[in-house]
Amino acid sequence: MSYYIVKGDKILKGSVRVSGAKNSALKLMAASILSGGKVTLKNVPDIEDVHIMADVLRTLNARVDFDTEGHILEIDACNVDVFEAPYELVRKMRASVLVAGPLLSRFGKVKVAVPGGCNIGARQIDLHLKGFEALGALNSIEHGYVISSAKEGPAAGKPAGGRLTGASINLDFPSRGATENLMMAAVLAKGYTTISNAARETEISDLADFLNSMGAEISGAGTDCISIRGVKKLHGTAYEIMPDSIEAGTFIVAAALCGSDVEIIDAVWKNIEIFCLKIKETGININSTSKNSIRVKGLQKELKPVYVSTLPYPGFPTDLQPIIAVLLAVVPGISIITENVFENRFMYVEELNRMGANIKVDGHHAVINGVKKLSAAPVKAFDLRAGAAMVLAGLAAEGATEVYDIYHIQRGYENFDKKLASLGADIKLVNDTQINV
Ligand code: EPZ
Question: In this structure, which residue's CA is closest to atom 34 in ligand 1?
Fold first, then answer.
C-alpha cells in the first residue's frame, strides 16, 4: 500500500486553489440519470469517488466520459435501462445510494444495495426510505438490497414501474443524503412535494440549481423547507460545480499550523462561516479577501483554546471536526470538541495521541489539553477527513511522519500532496514498488 512521508517544520506560503466539491459532484452525477439529454459537468474534482460514481452510472448503461485534465465530465443517460446499483460498488462508496431517488423518479423502480455503516457511524438510510414511501413507493429489504417501486400507474413512456406522487415529507433529522435523494425522487413525481426539516448545506443548493437548470421546479433549497413541483421530463444541461468547502477548511488549518502567508483561492467564507469564525477566535489571522478567497497568516504564538460543537449547516461542519482538532492539539489550554452528528468520529484521536497530543475522549466529547509540539510517528488514516488530519499533524510535528492507508484521503482530495508541496510542505508519496526496491 502507498503511504505519505511528511516532514514537519516547513513554513508554508503562496496560494492554492480549491477543487470542485466532492459532496456536490457525486450528487449531480447521480441526478444526471434524470435527464433525457446530455449533461456536461465542469470543475469536477479528479478523485477516486468520482471515478467510482462514474462506474456506477456505467453499470446502469449511461455513457460517462471524464476529461480529468480539463475537469469536465460528460454524462449521457438516455439509454439507462438497468435499475440496480450493485453491492460491490455501493460497498466501495456509500454515496452510490443516491442513484435510488433518480432511478425511482424516472423509472418507478430501483434495487440498491444497503450501504451499511462505516468507520464514523451507522450511516442508516431509514429517512430516505420513509420519504420514498411518502411519495408512493413500496420498499422492501431482500438479501442486502433495498427494492423500491412506485405503486401508481405507468411512468411516462416507461413500462418499468409506476410514477411517484408528490407529498409533504417531514425529516426527523436534517439528513443531507435523505434531502438530496428525496429532492431527486420528487422532481418527476405527479404534483407538489415539500420537504420540511431539510438539510441546508450549500451543496443542497448546488443540486437544486443543477436540477432547475435541467427544467425542474424547485424552490427553498438552502432553507429548512424545500418545495418541488413535479414535471414530466428534464432536458440536458451544462453546469459548473461549486468549490469544495471542506478542502478549503483543510488548507486553512494547514496555513494556521505552519503558514506565514497563504491564500486559499475559491474558498467561500460564507459556506464555512462558523468554522472560519472559530479559527479567528483562537487568534489566527484569517480574512476573506474577496468573494471567493481566504487569506491566513498562521504561526501566531499566543493562541487561545476554544469550544467546538458540530451541527448540521449552518452549524460547525462535522467534516472539519478532525481537522480543527489538529490545530487545537497544539493550542495551550483546554479546548473541548463535541460531535453531535456522528456516533464515532473520534477514531483519529488515538493516532494523534501517538504523536504526543493530549486528548481524552468521553462519549461525544473530546477534551484537548494543548501541547507545545507534536512529534512524528507512523500513523493510519481511518477515514477521509481523519486521514487529512494526520497529514496536517505531520506538517506541524518534529520529524518525519508516515501516514498509511492514504487511499481514504485520495477518495476525496485531488492532488493533496502536490497542492501542499506547492505551498512549501515536504510531503512525499511512497508507492509499494518504491518500498520493495
Ligand atoms: C454527507 O453524508 C456527507 N457525504 C458526509 O461527508 C458528511 O459527513 C455528512 O453528510 C454530514 O454532513 C456526502 O455528501 C457524500 P447525513 P450523509 O445523511 O448524507 C443519520 C465526507 O467526509 N441518518 O446528513 O450520509 C446518519 O447516521 C463525508 O465527505 C439517519 O439516521 O449524511 C448520521 O448520523 C463523511 N438516517 C446523520 O444522520 C438516515 O436515513 C447525518 O447523516 C440518514 C442519516
Answer: 342
